[in-house]
Structures are given as C-alpha cells and as structure tokens.
Structures
1.
Amino acid sequence: MKLLISRLKPSVAQLITSSILLGCFGSAFAQQSGLPINAAASVNGAIITNDMVEQGIKVAISQGQKDSPELRKAVIQKLVEVMLLSQQAEKDGLANSEKANSQLALIRQNYLADLELSTFMAQNPITDADVQAEYNREVSSLGPQGMITEYKISDIAVATEAEAQAALDRIKKGEPFDKVARSVSLGPNKAQGGAAGWVQPGQVPPQIGSVLATLGKGQVCSAPIQMQQGWYLVKVEDKKSSKPPTFEQAKQAVRAGLIQKKQYEFVAKIAKDSKIVVQ
C-alpha cells in the first residue's frame, strides 16, 4: 500500500496509508465552513492554523518539493495525522512520561534559542556596507603580494575540555588524527576521520582561524580550542596560496562569516553574564 504522504517523507507517515486517510478525513476536509479565521483544520476541537500549514509547506519546499494545492493538502493531512497521534498519546498517559518531558523541554529550548538568534539578527542585520567593508579589510590584510592562504583541515569535536585533552594526548603519542576522530568525535564528519575540506580563515570562527595561521602542513593545534558548541582539535592537512575571489564571488561567504561572528559574540556576551557549571 502507498504511504500517506511519501512526498513529505515524515517518519510517522509510514503508519497510515492514503486509503485510510481518505476514508477517515475526506469529509472533514470538505467541511471547513465552521472553522474560525486562520484555521486550516481542526481535530477534536484542536485547531491547525494556516500558519502551521505555511510552515510545513516551507519545510517541504526547502526539501526540493514544489508549491502546489496538492502539497498544501498533503501538509494539512500530515498535520491532522500528527495531531491525532499526539492526542492519543495524551490519552495513553505518554505526555507525562520522563522521556516525553525531557524531549519536549529540549525541543522548546532549541526553538527558543533559534528564535532568539533570529530576532537578534533581525534587529542587528548585516548590511551590504558591512559585507563590502569586511571584504576590503580581508583583502587589505593579505599584504603586498595579495594572496590568500587556504587550509585543508580535519577536526575533532567533543563536549568537554577533558575529552579534547585526552584525544590530543593520544595524537601526541603517535595515534593517527583520523583514527582518533573516528573514535571520539561528535562531529558530522566523524566517519570521514574528521576531514572538513578546504577553508579560508574568514570562513571559520575566529578561534580556529587564529590557530590555523600558526600551523604548518601536517601540524595539530597544541591545545584544545573552546567553541560555543564544545571543544575542538584541528589539524592542517595541507595549505596553499591563491588569488582572492572578487567581491561578487566572495560576498555570500563574507556575509555568512559576519553572521556567524556576530552570533558568536552575542552568545559569548550572554555566557559572560551567566553562571555556567559543567560537570
């Protein structure tokens, strides 16, 4: 049997088939005259708003799907399905379980963190003038030769300084960097031995960029690097010099770097004014 919304590829979509949905929900979708303004559907009195639908459509489009009436209907059906299951979970007493509470708290924290960052950036945007000024600064810092250094790097990301130092000690004793990365790294490139490809100093956080400038080919940082997300070790696999890109070629990367820097500084300021205890 075909999955309910294989186009959206959600995990819970594997639970209900389109034939069941058409049988159960078809008439409900056809009777929307009694719904309040900005409501796309309701499930046992709980409202699914048009804003929720639009958000679902945006996610689907970001995954490569095309906006269409069929996509909107599929998103609404999916939201109905999720609402039904969540209501049933409430009835079954699952909502108050320790696992549910911890996951819901994490989801809430992540959403609020993203919302805070997006609000901060909306109030403190990176302007075109900022991008141009940063590009000019980076080009002028290259010196009379006007060449930019690129680094082929690998990294190891862990949660604590102690874990980073333990990994660094293994490397200093002769264990290959990529082997240690596959063993302990929490990064998405763990399976690749920490390989992160070619980067320019302006494309990485300043803490890492400043360390890269001190390393030669094949060298590893002498101490763990503290980042917002945890602790890092970095190895320079190779390095090369090249002419800097034009402003048009570089402006997106420059903007991204400025955004990352501004966000890091914002989080660092909050952290400085906070009491943080890590076991």
2.
Amino acid sequence: MKYHYGLTIREYREKLNMTQAELAEKWPRSDGGIGVSINYVSDVERGKKIITNIQTLRRICGLLQIPLRKVGLSDYDPFNPQSSNGQITGFNDYGIIKLTNSPIDRIFDYKNCLLEAKGDCFISGTSMIHLTEDSSEILKEKLQSGNLYLLILDPDWIEKHYAIITFIDEDARQDFHFEIRNSIRKLNQLRKSLPQKLVSRLKIKTYSTIFPYIMTGYDNGETGKIVFEITDYIPEKNRPRFTLEKINSQSAFFDQVKSKFFSIWNNQSISKEI
C-alpha cells in the first residue's frame, strides 16, 4: 500500500477512540474555521483527498497528537515561531524551516513551494520534470506576477555523459535524456499556449555541466522560500531535503543557495536559452 497522510490520521484518530464524525466536527479548515463533512474525512483517510495546506496539517497533528515527524514536518512552526519546543532553534539563524531525508511528500514539498510563490520563481533539476507533468496551470498563474526561470539539463549533453548521473538507478541512466526531452516538449507547448504578454516571462535554459542541486524557489524581494536537495553521490531514498525561508541573518542559507542557481544561469559557456 502506498503511504499517504490519511493512514497516519486514521491511526491516531483510532488511538483516541474518536469517530470520523467527531473528527469532522473539529477538523481545522484552511480559512481558519472548523468543521468539514464526514465524507471529506473519509476521503482523506483513504488517500482520495490530499491536505495541501501545511498549517492545516500542523493543526490536525496537534488535534490528534500526531508527532510532526510522522508527516515529514519539523518541530519548528513557521506559522507560529514562538511555539517551537527549541529542538531545532539553532537552525533558525540559517533560515531552515524543514529538514528531512524522507522521500514521503517529496514532490509535494516542491509543488507546495511553487503554490505559495509570489514574485520571481526559479526551478532546476528533476523537480522540473515532475512539475511539467501536471502543473501547467500553476506555472501560468505564477507568470501573472513574476518571471519564471527554468533550468534543466541539456539532453544532448547528458545523452553523451549519462554515466555521471549517480542519483538514479544505473539501468535508467542511459534513457534519462528521454525524460528531459519530454519535459522540454511540454514546456514548449506551455509557451505556445501563453498570452503574448506573458511569453517573455517564461525563461528556459539548458545547462551542460554537473549541477547537483534539485531546487524550486521564489523571491519577491521581501519574502522567499527554497526547497532543495544536493544530489551528489547520495541515493534519493537517503537524500536530505531542505526547506529554507528568506530571513535577515548573516548566517542565512537562502541567498547562498539561490546564487548557486543563477551562477549556472548567467554562465553563457555552459547554459543556453531554448
């Protein structure tokens, strides 16, 4: 059975001897209210509906006494920083709001960052492949408020150098360039579907080098967030995934990680527009 949040929610609801009806009455909504239908709770527990609002998920964990680590969240609550129990207080100087090596909700983390995005967005690595599978409407929406910088491996280059791809199974490396070509095809379709005024905001480049960062982020000047992984020699199932927020601190990682992206983007010897 494939894991989803609903399995954990049902497990802890039953530990409290709470019925679905009782949980439905207390269920925290994203609009700040309380109460949903029993059918909604049932759909969540069966994995037919997914909780996409992190604050709602935190409130459910508090309601059902679910340890945050069970759903891939940290004890530091970015919505209520003063409530942190101090276990990762030291991370706050670096702007780390989540750190996990669990593959659970990996794509959710990237997509949630994009859904929250305000201002310019920047995306690189295999997260780009996942995003282009079903996120065209989200990308179109983000183009209304800022530029979208998409950085993806050059498929011709990686077809010749597939042996260096250490972050996927050996059997899949030789065909990896096909996935990239498919992503580029979908991005070109997206570009053709855009109103003329938005076309210039969609900026796509390929790069021909080793860039070990899978990254999705945004920055509007005042606020920003980045979800990223470093892929060097680390299998996906053990790879740490960071979520950073933009904060005013000399120790903050946000600007450092963002600069990695644009160092490749601005290097004309290894990147080119498509």
3.
Amino acid sequence: MLRLVVLFALLAEPLFAGAWPRGKGNSFVSLSFQLTDRDFFAPFNTYTALYLEHGVTEKITIGLDTGRGVSGKNKTILFISHPLLRTDSGHNFGVDLGLGYLAGEPAIRPGLSYGRGFSTDKGSGWFAVDTVMEYTLSTGRIDLKSDITYGLSYHPTMKTILQLQTGISAFDPPFARFAPSLVFKTGEKTHIEVGLAIGLVGDSNYGFKLGMWRDF
C-alpha cells in the first residue's frame, strides 16, 4: 500500500523530486507541452518542459528540470534531493538543491517539500507542498514558488490532480493559478496527462497542458 501511495505522489509531475525519494535504480521521465493565452486567439504562447529523475540510492535522487522558471524565463536545472524526515504518522519532508541556468544566467535553487499519502473510500491519494527559491547569481534576483497538490487515484487507469500554483517574482506581482488535470494510464508504465491552468491572482492567462509520464 505504501508503495502505491509513493508512486501516486511522484506521478504528480512535482516541482522537483519532492518529499518521496525515487528509490535506487528507478527512473522517471515527463515531457509536456503547454499553451497559454488570455483569450486563446492566435498567436499563442507555448513552451515545452522536460523533467527527469533517477534514484542513485534508496534515499538520493538526482534529476533534470527544464522549461520555465518562476519568472517565466527558460530554465535548465540539475538537482539532487534527499528525504529529511518521516514521522510515524506518515508525514514526509524532503530537501533539494539545484544548480543550473535561469534565463541564461547561473542560478541556485534550494527547495523544501512536504508530502503525505492517505487512503479514502474512493481510493488512495496524496497531499504535497513543494517550495523552491530561485536565486540568480549574477543579479542577486530571488524568485519564490510553492505548489500545493492534492491527488486521488479512484480507478486503476485514471487519476485526478488538483494543484494551486503560487509564486512571487522579483519584478512582478505575486501570482496564483489553479491547475486541475486528469491522468490516464495508457500502458504498464506510461501515463498521459491532460490539464488546464486558470489564473486567479496576478495572472490573467488560461492554459492547456498535454503531458506524458513514464517509469523505467
């Protein structure tokens, strides 16, 4: 049961490896395409994101996170994560450190994660809070982001994910977005995600997302 809950949590396309380690020898890849616009009339804003994880040991996970950072600029981050604490009641905490580039500038990205699996009469699920600070070395710019995720697997071939994405960028107002999605199992280790993004505060855009996940 615990292994299932951990798997569901990792399939939420986390901000990074999160509170649950991937596990020695296990790997994960996510490739997604997102379209955003205020009214969905051309031209659209589009971008792709690639996320990779690999379990070096049972507790150490390394990975690659590309796409867009908190500021909306391109990012390429290599990271390492490690669980920090697991309580007897099932609360999990993890830390992470990333190095790479944001908008072409060298950057550091430390992070802190919390996660907890649960079981209901409708199925197994997870709750997670993933927070990072993006620090650009050349300018001293600091951007903060925190994603709150609630996921539920109520059918062997389908999951729902409800996510609140929040952030504070150095030169922009704080933002909050609601990002619900459905995940469909299309193979033994493959899933397809279809989702939306709705700007709530400091963001007037709408978004559509199509992604693929695979464990190996």
